[in-house]
């Protein structure tokens, strides 16, 4: 088990990537963030680094070339990649997006929070439990956080 | 023009002369067959018909004339020297004649009759034309209205979708403004003078976010979810859970009676309670903890005033608070979008919450009103049908 934790943020929005990195840095210094701007690029990166996978994937839905839903389906099709937990991380809070994401195998659906404090709290909590019971951690988070989290 | 039908040329001639002397346009036919042909081509205002003719007799001709839609209203006067018996006269009338004159006849009387019948025919025809025109116009206008209505519905739907998309997209940059301002404040401005300006930026942005959120919920109401049978108790509990934080923070107490099960769109009714309860908390008296009481009764009419009746088809829900209240002369205002009775610095709010309440209740075919006096609290009254005309698709809880 490595001593650093790696989150893979698949999101094309540079502002959101900056916010995510900022929050991650303060949430947990051992947290490394890598980023891809669309599903296509993300799959390429993952397939080039076999065995060295991120602990959690944060996946935006609305992206050019390959959007989040398609990317999620591709991830779950791949026997090597399907075990990486995927959290959908998006601006949407619409039920049809939530249902589709959960159906396709996401473990959690988080609407990008407005408060950076909230995001820090989410990332710090997840990073502390990546090797434990992540689903339970997320369920607890959805009950305690003011951010919109569906598990 | 008047048509005279007679097989005897001398009869035709004398009658034609008489009429022409009195300035009538006259046409003639020597047989029933010829008469029918002419009637199809020309429009006559009166037909004088001899009864006894070789080939087709007068009765047959008359029956044919009244059979055509074009000629059915032309008055027919029978003229006969031979068939003057009562039964012939009766037959004349039943075959479509308006009069039956026997020879010899008084020319002055005949002229008077011709004049009367011709005038009646013209008037009837004019009336029919007017009626026809009117019907056509009504049809045209109806078609135009239906078309305009369709266009209106289409543009309405478009507008609602537009509002939804616009408000959703508006939230995006705002979320970033807030987040980056927070970062700047925490990283670079702790305890500096500039931080208070950043605080103002954040507060303003937050207010705008609430506004957009409210607009978003308002435009979401346009979609048409189904009615289901659900318990008001559970719906209210959901609304209270959503407001838990602020209820705790303001030490508010909410006392809810046992409420009935009705047909509704639960998410929307939950929003109604959420808006009214958070309104009550928002407009609490300074220094006093908000207290609310929710109860219900049934009534036979869709009215906030009518007598309670156990078997009524309307459920009436009361939500009473101990807040600052308002002057009832502003009752209409509180349900209108963006109308605020108080300055923003005194009380928060976007002025959309109660307009959402009103829209939802109207969608449920109910009504909402409030009773209040300044400084004496407010009681909101919702009147909702127990069953909806559109049958519910499910029984939820």
Automatic annotation (TrEMBL), chain A:
- BP GO terms, sorted: phosphorelay signal transduction system
Q: Which residues carry this modification: 4-aspartylphosphate?
A: 60
Q: Which PANTHER family match?
A: RESPONSE REGULATOR RCP1, RESPONSE REGULATOR RCP1-RELATED
Protein's organism? Parafilimonas terrae
UniProt keyword terms in alphabetical order: Phosphoprotein
- Return the PROSITE patterns for the record: RESPONSE_REGULATORY (PS50110)
Q: Which InterPro entries match?
A: CheY-like_superfamily, Sig_transdc_resp-reg_receiver, TCS_response_regulator
**Key word Ion transport present in the record?**
no
Q: Under which name does UniProt file this protein?
A: Response regulator receiver domain-containing protein
Q: Where are the transmembrane segments?
A: none
Question: Where do the Response regulatory domain residues begin and end?
Answer: 6-127
- Tell me the domain of life: Bacteria
**Any Pfam family:** Response_reg
Keyword Phosphoprotein (UniProt): yes
UniProtKB/TrEMBL annotation, chain B:
> Catalysed reaction per UniProt?
ATP + protein L-histidine = ADP + protein N-phospho-L-histidine
Which Pfam families does the entry mention?
HATPase_c (PF02518), HisKA (PF00512), Response_reg (PF00072)
Tell me which EC number(s) this protein carries: 2.7.13.3
- What SMART domains would the database entry show? HATPase_c (SM00387), HisKA (SM00388), REC (SM00448)
Is Phosphoprotein found in the keyword set?
A: yes
Q: Which InterPro entries match?
A: CheY-like_superfamily, HATPase_C_sf, HATPase_dom, His_kinase_dom, HisK_dim/P_dom, Sensor_kinase/Photoreceptor, Sig_transdc_His_kin-like_C, Sig_transdc_resp-reg_receiver
Q: Which residues carry this modification: 4-aspartylphosphate?
A: 50
Keyword terms: Coiled coil, Kinase, Phosphoprotein, Transferase
Q: Boundaries of each Histidine kinase domain copy? A: 165-388
Residue ranges the record marks as coiled coil: 124-158
Q: What is this protein called?
A: histidine kinase
- Domain Response regulatory positions: 1-118
Question: What lineage is on file?
Answer: Bacteria, Pseudomonadati, Bacteroidota, Chitinophagia, Chitinophagales
A molecular function (GO) held by this record is:
phosphorelay sensor kinase activity
